[in-house]
Amino acid sequence: MENGLKPVGVRQGHLLSLTLFNILLERIMEDALEGNEVTITSIILFTLYSCPSTIQGVGQYTKAIKAVEEDIQNVLKNVNELSGIKESDTGLAPPALWDLAADKQTLQSEQPLQVARCTKIINADSSLLILSLIKDLNNNKFKFVCCLNNVHNKLLFGLHRVDRNKYQIHIPLPPKIDPTVTMMQVEEKPDVTYSDVGGCKEQIEKLREVVETPLLHPERFVNLGIEPPKGVLLFGPPGTGKTLCARAVANRTDACFIRVIGSELVQKYVGEGARMVRELFEMARAKKACIIFFDEIDAVGGARFDDGAGGDNEVQRTMLELI
């Protein structure tokens, strides 16, 4: 070759693409024609650092990166095995976890339960009640007498899964609640205490007496023979500590805390706001103890008026359902 240059030999196991070799060779020729010194060492170093994977098959950090990736895959596999079945939007387990043979055997050995609603209690002492079956396998509806078992009285008037062969209630079903209402529940306990609220000493004392005491010491009201108050109205200009007081009460008790913004109850369609209020209180009754905090209640708590269009305003319907 001209200028005394010879092609670089490719050792066994080292691959060099023809295109890269031609480009590299052209650059070396240009340097040689310009009078620059070109050495075999510079060619090898240039090739290694510009495209290491083409000559040696691996880069400088390829092995370390590959080892880290394998460790990540192993850790991820262990986490998936320990976490078990994951939640899904459809409520179904992944197809890899399906056991169709075991499911078929379970269906053949166990009788399916049916959904029924309690319509009447025959006698409170006899623990017998009448259930109305919503729909059977043949799309028929009928009533039958069932034993009360260990179902709590508050759970009677609702949906139940029953066994018609044994005339027993197996599972009281929870009430059907709108997901929008469920999201109003505050899962984490508020971290606000009474010491964080300043300038409301008298209001805090009344709150503790009216809201906190019935939840923590209900026996005091039983001994006195009086009913505890059902609610408290906090009013005042913005920034005076109304929301902080409600959070402080929820922090002192173990009750479920539900925070509702008044504007969330103002819906577009007729009856939607009243329905959300009903479902909100249904969810609260299902809890052992619950505090419902309506913030900015003036959004639905205005004075009643007649707009002249006939019928009440939707906001007024929501307020009537609330009271």
TrEMBL record:
Gene Ontology terms: cellular component: proteasome complex
- Which one of the record's GO molecular function terms can you name? ATP hydrolysis activity
Task: Please give the Pfam families that the UniProt record associates with this protein.
Answer: AAA (PF00004)
Coiled coil start-end:
58-85
Name the SUPFAM superfamilies on file: P-loop containing nucleoside triphosphate hydrolases
Q: Which UniProt keywords apply?
A: ATP-binding, Coiled coil, Nucleotide-binding, Proteasome
Provide the AAA+ ATPase domain boundaries: 228-320
Family label: Belongs to the AAA ATPase family.
The name under which this protein is listed is: AAA+ ATPase domain-containing protein
Organism expressing this protein natively:
Biomphalaria glabrata
State the encoding gene: 106078105
